[in-house]
Amino acid sequence: MVVSHHKVQNAPNFGRSRVTLPLIRETMKHQCVSLDCYPYTAGSTMIRTDRGMLDGRVLIASSEPHPEMSGRDLDDIAKEWGVAKDEAARRLQPGSAIYFLMDENDVQRILAFDETMIGSDGVPVGDKPHPRLWGTFPRVLGHYSREVGLFPLETAVWKMTGLTARNFGLAERGTLKVGQQADIVVFDAATVRDAANYTEPTLPAEGIAAVIVNGALTPARRRAPGRARRAGARPHSFQPTDPASSMTQIQRFPTPMAVPFSRRSAPMASSS
Known about the structure:
Elements: E1 2-3, H1 17-28, E2 34-37, E3 42-46, H2 51-54, E4 57-63, H3 74-81, H4 85-92, E5 95-100, H5 104-112, E6 116-118, H6 132-147, H7 153-160, H8 162-168, E7 184-188, E8 208-213, E9 216-217, H9 243-252, E10 258-261
Parallel strand pairs: 1-2, 2-6, 7-10
Antiparallel strand pairs: 3-5, 4-5, 7-8, 8-9
């Protein structure tokens, strides 16, 4: 069982992650249970009219009948139309929206839980979608690991790679070692950060030097190559200047598949 995008929402429930996480940990002793979480206090789903979803701030991400309302606050739209909030939501359907219903303390507590995987749960619809589509993973690396200090860098990487591969049974994925499929993200641990926000949700992340999928260097906006290539193989589009040194780096970094690098040197590996 997967507790997908685990959250505690609406003010009366704030703090109840202190109850849910021990329950999940105890249940894990008796059956196969895993969970994931995204690093934001707002979620996103279809435009809803039920009161529990409208208790907090609501941003419209997309609306089929009123596309011009994309990116606007539902409260402002309701006032402009002279109707109640739920009626404004009904008129905007079908569409998607962003709901600010969670507490930062709960988000951090769930993220820090050692068995929590990182997931974006993004809805790629409209001009103003939730920024988690572009920001989830660099936000965990930059904000929650480096700035907040919620967990070490190696733990952050593990939560979005090896832990996920283990829980979903993805063979030869999720760890960086000889014999595995060569999926690698090279980033600067000192500068990696999410740039996407609720005003400009499609800004690309900063501090990411390269993305390698199945052994091939993948430029931005190009479809990921489908042919698998194992770590240690030399792809046509990415030729290390020193293959022996490159292989040593892979062997020294056995757990995560994301490799931090220093601006003052070549890409380097870290031990987990």
